[in-house]
Design goal:
It is a single chain. By secondary structure, the protein is mainly β. The chain is built from no helices and six strands. The chain has one domain. Strands 4-5-1-2-3-6 form a six-stranded antiparallel beta sheet, with no helix packed on it.
Length: about 70
């Protein structure tokens, strides 16, 4: 999947704590970002208070909604 414009394609990250596996709603790995190629393969946190387009485990997040990068 490829991003267009100022959109970032993010794949959801599974968090594991002992035997419990959960998905964090505002954390993921960047699959593609046309406007900032340095974000690719990095873990990002984004604004969780907005509704995003979801396709399976992928989310389209606007670049301006990225809050932090690991």
């Amino acid at each position: 999947m490829k991003a267009v414009g100022k959109w970032v394609i993010v794949e959801k990250v599974n968090e594991k704590s002992g035997a419990i596996i959960s998905k964090v709603d505002n954390k993921g790995v960047v699959v593609d970002c046309r406007c900032d190629k340095n974000l690719r393969d990095k873990i990002v946190y984004f604004n969780e208070r907005k509704d995003y387009v979801r396709v399976n485990d992928f989310i389209a997040v606007h670049y301006d909604d990225i809050l932090a990068v690991e």
